[in-house]
Amino acid sequence: MHALIQGVILGVLTAGVFALMASGQTLIFGIMKVVNLAQGAMVILGAYLSYQLFTSFGLDPFLAIPVTTVIMFALGVAVQWLFLRPLKKDDRSELSLLITFAVALLIEGVMSITWHTTYRSINTGYANSSWSLFGYQITLVRLWAFLLSLAALGLLYLLLNHTRFGRAVRATVQNPESAKLLGIEADRVSALGFGLGAATAAAAGSVYGLLYPFNSGSHYDLISKLLSIVILGGLGSVGGAVLGAVIVSTSSAVVAATISPAWSEMTFFVILIAILLVRPQGIFGTTVRGAL
Amino acid sequence: MTRLRGAGPIAFFAVLASLPSFNLAHWTINLLIFTLMFAVMSSAWNLVGGFAGYPSLGHAAFFGIGAYAEALWFSHHPVSSGYEPFLLLPAIGLLAVVIGLPVGAVAMRTRTDVFAIVTITLLFVVQGLAFNLHGITGGSQGLAIPPAPFPAATYDRPFYYVLVGLLALAMAVTFAAMRSKVGLSLAALRGDEDKARGIGIRVTGVKLLAFAVSVGLTAMVGAVWAYYEGFIYPQFAVDPLITIAMVLMTFLGGRATLWGPVLGAFILESAQQYLAYQLGGSQVYLIAYALVFLLIMLLLPRGILPTVQDQIRRRRRRQALDSGSPTLTQPANAAATAGGGQA
Amino acid sequence: MTALLEVTDMTKVFGGVRAVDGCSFTVEPHTVTALIGPNGSGKTTLFNMVTGYLGPDSGRVRFAGQDVTGVDAGTLYRRGLSRTFQQARVIPQLSVLENLVAAGGYSWRQLLTTRRVGRADRDRAGQLLEEFRLSHVADLLASELSYGQRKLLEFAAVLMSDPTLVLLDEPTAGVNPVMIDTMERHIRERHEAGITFLIVEHDMSFVMRLCDPVIVLDQGKRIFSGVPSEVQANALVLDAYLGS
């Protein structure tokens, strides 16, 4: 029982950072109908940037976030502009999968040259301090990471609901055709949206780097988990991504605590299959693409 | 034209079959073996990703299943002759079909993006299993297979010929599909699956058939690979890069064509080996590979063969217009047969 | 005479909206039955449920004496229940000829053993192409046809399986007046050859010329069924169209 509750606590705290990564992923899908297979690589790149700022300038990863998000935003815009914009509409969804996979490989290659393939971790002074609450361990850094992810998600929410850009994004998500009629420039919204997705990856990367050791190949571990989360929540739904992250993180933490850490990585696949059998459109997804 | 149709494949396989008798350098035949592996796998991927239009990113999982099945069989049975492991191939193909059918039945309930996601997730799960089921797979220590008792000078040949045979099988299956109503059904569901369902096409059946045959062939290549390499590790046996290579080669040569995946495999595998040789370390190589990948997708999204066919079709149409011949429907006619027929 | 198609107490709810609400009706053999109603009255949803595209929340469908509720679209088609779509759906990257051949409703044995487009298929499709005046475009890709031609092609294709009942979803929507006459002629000819039709249509003069009986839907319920001449006199129908 103790292990179970400890697992739930850990799972919920970890869910924050995954929710952040997945919200960027699902946002990009919502706007462009592109499944970004490079989201994991962007998170790891964000972690490396944060690592570099910490080791070179002693900048705390939490404080590095404004810097890394701006860099990654620019990178995201560039990727969209160079590689995704030229695609024709009819084969965009298929080709974009492959293109974003290639971008992931490109980022992986650049990272492994720049930082080699040894595992890195960001060891701040507070990395190992923890609280004990009713006998349950809560690592301070995880709590901070959780709060920070919540704050970033909150900012994202405000951005989407209370700015002109946010309105354009929501219009594009709901109905790209009429958004175009309303004078919303799809290319510009897509570029900014992809940038925003990359920026959330950067913020999540800084947090991820504090929590886990990583190397250039770590994005493979991330991407399948992220993809499960966004499908679980329904592609394109930010709220769904948050809920998906909570479900996936909590259940894998519980499996890790009660059965074995080795099997926790399998948990999300079982959940994914179960969801697809019952509700192929995910929890929050309302439409099945390609249906009538 | 019709009389010549059989000549291309016959000449191609005659050349392939005779190559080893030229006493090629070891590295050449090694390159050819890997090229053939990818030619078979791309052809297999093409059945699902090309003809049915379901871009699977999880085929490497079945490659790994084939590899582990071969290696596991060795660890429980003493081998009497070097050819025996090859006799196991049909059984391994069947095993992959048995695993693939329920997986396909669930995954193919979804369309393009989600299907790709489910299959890539499957890949990582199988990789995770390979790492975690220490008792069976040896975990990250991997499994070793005793080397085949073939003479050193011609050691590669049996592998080579088996792969030529598998390529012939893959291409024959593809050709049969294209020529039969299965191919027509696949083309229809690729175009508009819901509509296809409404005109009586056995949508679920034919796409599962394509998936099963495809993963069966892929697993057989995995088994040959494991035997050839002599050792297997989870990160190489279940490698996303293998999936990506199949996809890329098919895209480069041309989806839903008979020769496209083979052409793509011959071009890319040579290029890949050359890059790996020239650039050495895997890091720069990865970047070069990704850049080649991006260039192909952006410049030739439809692939070499369909682009060339389009050019020919346009030129013929122009010639027909210039000469003012009354056979104005001729180019469209030729295009329709080119799109559906040989290629 | 027993009804060819019998829909009983069909209901479908989308997110709280009762798109089809306890609807029952029958289609008698050898009729051209019209299904009309204002926008959003549930006609297309009903079509989708009858043809196996959508599972009903409750209710039954009987076709040719058998309960076919929940039977998938492909099986229904092969048993003789065909449909077309509102937006003229054809397979864009197949040729016109292949579009017809693909719709033959084949058994597994035929799928695996017969040629993609064999001589028999060519003959059979050729007759339909002739009938629908599409022979000259047989080898064009379906995506290269005009919208009206695509509508004709879609209609012709669903005849490949020798259906007993054909459901047409707005056969005249978006086509020019000449094409409307052509469409009407083809329906009449095929009706005389023994096919039963159920047609969703907004063009009232087309319905009045061609159909008998007429079923009127409003808010997911059947509010009228009878001969065309009575439709215009019916108070409920007027209410539904004009609002009370």
Descriptive account of the structure:
The complex is a heterotrimer of chains A (292), B (343) and C (244). Chain A has 292 residues and is mainly alpha-helical. Chain A has 11 helices and 2 strands; from the N terminus they run H-H-H-H-E-E-H-H-H-H-H-H-H. The termini of chain A are far apart. Chain B has 343 residues and is mainly alpha-helical. In chain B, helix 5 (89-107) packs across helix 11. The longest helix of chain B is centred in the middle third of the chain and has 27 residues, at 203-229. Residues 325-343 of chain B have low confidence and may be disordered. Chain C has 2 domains: 1-84 and 164-184 and 194-244, P-loop containing nucleotide triphosphate hydrolases (Rossmann fold, 3-Layer(aba) Sandwich); 88-157, no CATH class. Chain C has 244 residues and is an alpha/beta fold. Helices cover 35% and strands 24% of the residues of chain C. In chain C, helix 3 (96-102) packs parallel to helix 6. The N and C termini of chain C lie far apart (38 Å). The B-C interface holds B 178-185, 187-188, 190-192, 194-203, 205-206, 329, 332-333, 335-336, 339-340 and C 51, 53, 72-74, 77-78, 82-83, 85, 89-95, 97-98, 101-106, 108, 110-117, 136, 139-141, 144, 157-158, 160-161.
